[in-house]
Amino acid sequence: MRKLLLAVAAAAILVVPALSPVSAQAQSPIVIKFSHVVANDTPKGKGALKFKELAEKYTDGKVKIEVYPNSTLYKDKEEIEALQLGSVHMLAPSTAKFAPLGIKEFEALDLPWLFKDGETYANAMKGTVGKWLFQKLEAKGITGLGYWDNGFHMVSANRPLVKPTDFQGLKFRISGSKVADQYFRLVGTIPQIMAFSEVYQALQTGVVDGCENTASNYWTQKFYEVQKDITVSYHAHLQYAVIVNSKFWSGLAPDIRTQLEKAMNEATDYTNSIARQENEDALAEIKKAGKTTLHYLTDADRKAWQEAMQPTYKWAKGRVGQEVLDLLAKELDVKMN
Ligand code: LMR
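That is the input. Now the predicted structure with (2S)-2-hydroxybutanedioic acid docked in place:
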């Protein structure tokens, strides 16, 4: 009898430590690392913080979102590799940055003067084309959760860029899209892909002469300090895909995933609702800082840019394929050439 009691007591001792990590695990929050390359004070930065706030609220603290802005965790190209490896769980790269994964179709979104305005963009991405593009990511172990807006690009250099010929011979930083490479080549620049975190210094030291970006990025990265002239051209759109590691995402308990999806949908609506105003405010700040001259295109100037960049559409067929161009043409009710 005594032997039996001892055996039971020993078994209990063995069982307790085996159980305790499980119960401790149930209490400690699931950590989601959300890395991005821009400042907190931008549409994407604010969207990430809004997602954190809502996700932690809806999961009642069961999930903790750690947001790493400003390339503090990874730079552009590294972050997508890190996502695939599972070192980071969530990102919101611009759609210009998916080609290294072997997915070129997203670059169709970078075509010049494709979207009439922010609303047209947002509607298109909620429709067939947005879903079709997300399906492309699945084969790479990546799940798309939403599209975030950051408005339209401006261009800059240390000389006014008003006529297409003004670009001639400039070294131009681009973020990754071959479509952007093409339209900048058509106006005579030498485009160069460079990580976002390296742009300020490259502009300052003359490694590149100019670049394109949205007002919120010019303002928060201080590009306006090292560029004498900015043209408010709004020639192309900057959008992000919020993405997660598929294995991680599908491994979450269904109720947690539902709560996170709700948080993401609301954070997406929030981000897309502030993007325009954020960029207008940033442009007003740049103007107020008085370090750079702002230029605006007349209708004739815009037409000249459009004509110069138009061959990008024909060229894009060979790069992104006809299917995505057809989907966009249908969604936007435009002709793609
Ligand atoms: C860039 O590299 O210029 C942009 O993609 C940065 C960003 O994420 O807004």
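Residues 28 and 260 are 17 Å apart (CA to CA).
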